[in-house]
Amino acid sequence: MGFRFELIKECSQTGARLGRIHTPHGVIDTPVFMPVGTQATVKAVLPRDLKEIGASIILSNTYHLYLRPGFDIVKEAGGLHEFMGWNSPILTDSGGFQVFSLGSLRKITDDGVVFKSHLDGSEHFISPEKATEIQNALGADIIMSFDECVQYPCDYSQAQIAVDRTTQWAKRCKNAHKRDDQALFGIIQGSVYKELRFKSVADLVEMDFPGYSIGGLSVGEPKDKMYEVLDYTVPLLPRDKPRYLMGVGSADALIEGVMYGVDMFDCVLPTREARHGTVMTTKGKIVLRNATYSRDYNPIDPECDCYACSNFSRAYIRHLIKADEILAAMLTSIHNLKFLIDLMKKLRKAILEDRFVEFKQNFYK
Amino acid sequence: MGFRFELIKECSQTGARLGRIHTPHGVIDTPVFMPVGTQATVKAVLPRDLKEIGASIILSNTYHLYLRPGFDIVKEAGGLHEFMGWNSPILTDSGGFQVFSLGSLRKITDDGVVFKSHLDGSEHFISPEKATEIQNALGADIIMSFDECVQYPCDYSQAQIAVDRTTQWAKRCKNAHKRDDQALFGIIQGSVYKELRFKSVADLVEMDFPGYSIGGLSVGEPKDKMYEVLDYTVPLLPRDKPRYLMGVGSADALIEGVMYGVDMFDCVLPTREARHGTVMTTKGKIVLRNATYSRDYNPIDPECDCYACSNFSRAYIRHLIKADEILAAMLTSIHNLKFLIDLMKKLRKAILEDRFVEFKQNFYK
Predict the structure, then answer these.
(1) Does B110 participate in catalysis according to the annotation?
(2) Interface-testing mutation among A36, A38, A45, A46, with chain B (most B C-beta atoms within 10 A)
(3) pLDDT-derived band at B82, boundaries 50, 70, 90
(4) A330: which chain B residues are within 8 Å (Cβ-Cβ)?
(5) 0.80 exceeded by pTM
(6) How confident is the model at residue A1, as a pLDDT?
(7) In whole angstroms, what is the distance from residue B285 CA to residue B64 CA?
(8) Which residues in chain A have Cβ-Cβ distances shorter than 8 Å to B315?
(9) Is A287 left (phi over 0), alpha (psi -120 to 50) or beta?
(10) C-alpha dist (Å) from residue A358 to A280, A346, A362, B359
């Protein structure tokens, strides 16, 4: 019933790999895209619909749940799975990224981070120990160590401090971690500096985590820079451990990430764009709000078999968007998530059949 | 495949009756509560979830669909059923009530109503013929004649003018009506004046509509007044035709209405209150936003078997409400609709077993 990563197959031409993660709440086929449920809900999607879409694991945020409703309430409710009615695997982010995003509202020391709540301005302190305690209380299957995530651009000396701190904090998280039914991942930092990424990997691999996250990317750098970092960082990570690229979820970045050997991805993009009326299709993105779709009676994507595409037209969904109807966000969120989850399914099939490179080439055509 | 009302059983002590309405898109067991989908969507509920809840017919609004997206688009899409992905029965309101609610934005003459759109201020004219043409284009199974609905209080002479106009307009709607797969109902007006209600009933019954709506109630009058009107109006309506009380949907008013012999009801209340975090339970209404529910791990209503009550706690739904999450409205809407639809199911069972009076007494205990 514990955590285990099974490496099933590796691509003969790239770093792409097919795997399976076993957790107390079920199995995750990798590469996988994880829908984000920041506040203990994937916005506008019922858990049973997430299941139908094919989501095998979702992500939630320590920072948000700590502030609201409070981790004591989630614990009292029987843990996060029970609280949010999701009995499949969950991953919680440590809150590091969220706290650092607060900018002037937070102050970092070696002890931890003092910050003001974005909700009511109240002051809080989160340390590696505290972040681990909260995540132990929430009870996700996979939890993150508390890291320092720097912005882009970031000068070398600052990035170096963050890497050293992230290493120290990872140790403290490991020591504080109390539940053997949760897998604690280490997070690699180092901005876009090769030596720093190498150092971060070396430090964390030394500690032997059951999985490794690649943090500090998709924070404003050009995509090429991100791919460059993945190119030299991922191969250093242990072959027998899952690798998670944090905060990345555009279709092209998922394919590239998989090529470099990443197994797990998460991003708010598909659901956020959905709520703004932008949908992903096999022919590219579509802004459904545009007048051009007012009499378009085709589904969002004729190649998609999601509930939205099986039952509703672009014209109808555009009407819902224009009329400010909640159903718009519900249908577009279902579609966008299904689109990315289906993409990952196709990628897994391509890796299994050793035609990943061919699949990638066709996708860009 | 046409429209037909089947009277199955009448209560031995009250006016309550059990029936079945046959329509081109399916059968409706009565008494029935019809969820409202004003803008071609029952707010925050997927059509398949409405089906699961047990909704057998939903209502939509001519006024809103005429303005947005436009009835030509709905027609082009293949009609309202196809457009909104709901292949069960639909009823459309004529727009009379909505137009009269515009107050200073509309002007009524015997010809029809000139009004300004609540969306963009553009000027429009709806006549009985136009309202019928639009409803023929939308293609609902049951459509309404265009009536003049007066507010409460309303003096006798004004109410009298509205009754006469409603009669004239009902004739014009009947003449304009072009589809025999749609049942056109007449609407009884007359405010709270017995003679006027009698006159309205006599006028419309003379015209032999396949069903009769009781309009002009639940417009601000005390509930006792409404029950008084039902008490003397409903018995005058033909026994073999369905009777629809417009805009009524609180649990107690449904039970009272059924007692007087009403077969159909609609109301935005259950979904509107749901979006504001108020839910209906067998023990009365609950305002989930209140702090008292922050650690309440019971379902909304332990006696309810809806998706929300089967999977989530009051504490979780309260968290969603506080966090402004769409999922809150989704879950509370499912629950409130299921609550009223289940209530109607229990009422039908009670009538079938001739224990309606007993059921009513127990409900108020």
Answers:
(1) no
(2) A46
(3) very high
(4) 44, 46, 326, 330
(5) yes
(6) 55
(7) 30
(8) 69, 73, 77, 83
(9) beta
(10) 21, 12, 6, 68
